[in-house]
Amino acid sequence: MKLLDIQHLTKKFVVESDWLGRPKKILTAVHDVSLAIEAGETVGLVGESGCGKSTFARTILGLYEKTHGTVLYKGRNIDQNGVHADFKRHVQMIFQDPYASLDPRMTVADSISEPLRNYHMCANNQDLKKRVFELLEQVDLNSEAAQRYPHEFSGGQRQRIGIARALALNPECIFCDEPISALDVSVQVQIVNMLKDLQQRFGLAYLFIAHDLSMVHHVSHRIGVMYLGKLVELGPGSTVYHDPLHPYTQSLIAAIPKPDPHAAPAVPAGGEVPSPLSLPSGCVFHPRCPYASELCRHESPVWREVQPGRFAACHHVRGGDVV
Amino acid sequence: MNTLLDIQNLSISFRTYRGVLEAIHHVSIVVNKGETIGIVGESGCGKSVTAHAVMKLLPKETAIYSPDCKIMWEGTNIVSFTEQEMNALRGQDMSMVFQDPMTALNPVLTIGDQICEGLVLHRRISQQQALYEAEKLLRAVGITAPEKRLHQYPHELSGGMRQRSLIAMALACSPRLLFADEPTTALDVTTEAQVLYLLRSLQQKLGMAIVLISHNLGVIAQMCRRVYVMYAGCVVESGMVEDIFDKPAHPYTNGLLASLPDPEHKDKPLQGISGQAPDLFHLPEGCRFYPRCRHTMQICMKQAPPCYDLGKGHQAACWLLCPERGKYNEIT
Amino acid sequence: MDTRDFEPVDPKCIVPIRIPPQTLRSRGWRQMKQNKLALLGLGIVVIMTSIAIFGPLVTSYTYDDQDFAMANAYPSPLHWFGTDSLGRDLLVRVLYGARISLSIGLAASLINLFIGVIYGGIAGLVGGRVDRIMMHIVDILYSIPMLLYVILLMVVFKPGLLNIYIALGIAYWLNMARIVRGQILSLKKQDYVMAARSYGTSTWHILTRHMIPNCMGPIIVTLTLSIPEAIFTEAFLSFIGLGVSAPMASWGVLTSEGINSMRSFPFQLIFPAAALCITMLGFMFLGDGLRDALDPQNQREGNR
User: Fold this and answer.
1) Do β-strands A76-77 and A230-236 pair in parallel, antiparallel, or remain unpaired?
2) Number of A:B CB contacts under 8 A?
3) Interface of chain B against chain A, CB under 8 Å?
4) CB contact A157 to B (< 8 Å)
5) ipTM of model
6) Which domain holds residue B268?
7) Which residue of B has its CA nearest to A260?
8) What is the pLDDT at residue C39?
9) Which of A51, A230, C12, C298 gives A47 a disulfide partner, CB atoms 3.0 to 4.6 angstroms apart?
10) A275: DSSP letter
11) What confidence category does residue A21 fall into, taking pLDDT thresholds of 50, 70 and 90?
12) Nearest to A103 among C22, C210, C303 (CB)
């Protein structure tokens, strides 16, 4: 059974309202996205800034109130009584900015033990202390770290503290919201390797959100690509990276500068991402798409299974003819 | 003479409330005319400080230049230049593109005003002429409808557009040296590729030298001819880009390259580097990299390594390259 | 250099560099210590407070001991600050004045803290329409000149120490409410508050564990700066006759009395006025210093 099944999730924000509080301008940050996560699997989610990938994760967790859609946790709707608490406890989150996601006025021990206290996981202070040390050890931090404050740590160490906190409740799935993009290259590897290691030890599932496609490819079993609030492609990691279906995925991959002086320079795609407040008609990617046809300008492509296990929303998959 | 900028033994210290902190230590960098060099390293390694020190943009109250350092601009030492002399040099002979295109532009002035400012100041032309020039510049950096953009404010432009406008500003007086301080870090991949493409084509057209500062090895590999690798305030390795990427001599460079995922071999575990960059207030003795190094030797913990020449301008500061080390290997 | 130098070192033997722990408090204090003006302010505040508490206990006169024989005496070893027109020792009256003025400052800012934090906290936390209406009310009250408002309240309440506390307290909370609301609104968007919600922290605990401790800096600064404001307003009220009633004396009353005999006995004006000015400056310096030391943004930069 699927661990998480997100169906037709939509999130709209009111950007501007009149003096009575009635909405005037609405931004659709996530538009009808469906995605399932199996137990123990890593699903990568890539896209450029503002494409709604973080909002998507936060909306599932209920940090933003969703506009439409359902989230099934082990086949049960999380809006039902009882399911929600279960879901919240077993799905945790790691944040992008390790400077901002830890309360500066709490010691590391206080931060890590907060989820444990919330769910009364430890009978007494002795147990709590033991569990905090155990969690610190799992993320390769010295137990001496417990009494220190976040500002005394480097970015990579803070991210480890964030991971320890997410692990505290023995989750089944962790949403990693750009967990490595604020870190140095050499430290990124440490965090990625640790996440992979923890996955094997605890059978964790990850929703790994990032804009660095090569790193996402390295860690993910499946990759989803988002553009302007919509999921445009989803499929097994290697096939999406090496044989992208959607023209947007193709341009994303072509734009990565390769760390090889002998390789040909990256090819820039034309155009700019349009403002999410005034989306183009039809397929949202058509103004930048090299294959755009009359059809793309008028009709929004449907989300369909192009090959077994590979989905895309495009009229001209791989630049080919209309299917 | 082919050398444009020759930085010798540059050390910069800052006065902070925790005491004096040395941000860069004995950095020597050469930039030839029309050449793109890269400075690569992780946050806090001193790459930006180096560029700001050359442009003399560091806060005067807190930054201290070491007494023995030299910054030779076409044979003249500019360390002792006054603010006035520097102003003549900045903008006209050397200019800079900053990392964050949002904060580097003044939000209350139009794009046109900001580009014209430098033009009117350095070339002493009328505002009218300057506006005409500015429009030409915007067109040159690939901005569509430049006559409209001139009268827009920074917040009306997208991130990529802003970075292009900044490049246009930096190029206004056709400088001979352009510092690009993480010019694409704040941008998305597709925009990054556009900006890099633009920089490359502008350099071919205008023939200026570029010092590209980045933490992204991909960007460095694609843009630069020569590379300097910095760690904890020191240059640890330098050389032609092919040598650095194909035959890295310093364990730090090696570790950086091993940190990048290889798309062809997805299941190969990444090596990376253990530990984290040192706090500049608590630097290790000897080689600054030894606590994170795989090949630490006794001497690394006692003495900082000198720079060893590996031929073709390839240099690295690491005890592994010491000829004396051969003797030890023979004994054991 | 000898060949043994090139012997490899087992990575396990490399001792990591230990960086001594540094708490937020120690860092804030270090920053304060470098700020000479703030230290001066702190010194003044401490001295004034101890004088106000202990001063009257050690003097040989009380504030209403009259000695007509010694009326309007110039400062002398017997009466350090001289005496007033009724022959009361001016030093003692200034010391008692310190008690009243400082206690008014303290009480007014405590009431202001109480109302301001709760009002601003609710507006910020609930947000939306409630926030908009609550802040419009603050805006309207803000548009009434503060002194006018206090004077009106005093006229209704009648002069007296307790009523001054109340009037000042309920007049000066607007600023605090605004600051607290702004803080809560920005804290709500912080990742660590988001994180706390994601692992199931209740709203009450988010408020008490995360938001209030992180608002403390600006609250303390506003509080420190509102104390001299309250003292000054009280002085003004007493000066125009709406303050504490005789024979009690606040610095405002003393200054007002001193003005009458300014020409002939200037010391009767100078001493209380100086005490008032020094205390106000002390609080201002301390408040500014605290603002620099407690600002989290400052601290992140200080890390480098």
Assistant:
1) unpaired
2) 126
3) 42-43, 158, 160-161, 188-194, 196-197, 200, 215-222, 241-242, 245-246, 255-261, 263, 266, 269-274, 276-277
4) yes
5) 0.86
6) 3-93+175-331
7) B221
8) 86
9) A51
10) P
11) low
12) C210
C134-155 pLDDT per residue, tens: 889 988 888 888 778 777 877 7
Site from C15, C126, C192 to mutate, A interface, most A CB atoms within 10 angstroms: C192
**How far is Cα A115 from Cα B302, in angstroms, rounded to an integer?**
45
Taking all residues of chain C, what is their mean pLDDT, rounded to a whole number? 79
Residue A168 distance to chain B (closest CA, Å)? 24
Contact A304, A312 (CB under 8 A): yes
Q: What is the pLDDT of residue A235?
A: 93
Superfamily of structural domain A4-105+170-184+200-256+268-318: P-loop containing nucleotide triphosphate hydrolases (3.40.50.300)
Q: What is the mean pLDDT of residues A279-286?
A: 88
In tens, the pLDDT along B4-16 reads 999 999 999 998 8
Final residue of a domain: which of B174, B199, B229?
B174
pLDDT tens-digit map of B232-252: 999 999 999 999 999 999 999
Q: What's residue C301's pLDDT? A: 40
Among C7, C31, C34, select the one facing B328 at the smallest CB separation: C7
Contacts of C191 in chain A (CB under 8 A): 95-97, 100-101
Q: Are residues B205 and B137 in the same domain?
A: no
Domain boundaries, chain A: 4-105+170-184+200-256+268-318
CA triple C60-C62-C63, angle to 5 deg: 140
Structural domains of chain B, count = 2
Sequence letter at residue C89: D
* The domain boundary residue, chosen from B149, B174, B199: B174
Q: How confident is the model at residue B177 (pLDDT cuts 50, 70, 90)?
A: very high
**Does the pLDDT at position C295 exceed 70?**
no
Mutate to test the interface with B, among C1, C4, C5, C292 (most CBs of B within 10 A): C5
Residue A255 pairs in a beta bridge with none
DSSP assigned state of A240: H
In this complex, is the C-beta atom of A189 within 8 Å of any C-beta atom belonging to chain B? Answer: yes
Looking only at the bridges linking them, the beta strands covering B76-77 and B70-73 are antiparallel
Contact assessment for residue B98 and residue B145, using Cβ atoms and an 8 Å cutoff = no
Contact B191/A272, CB-based, under 8 Å?
yes
Determine contact, residues B178/B209, Cβ cutoff 8 Å: yes
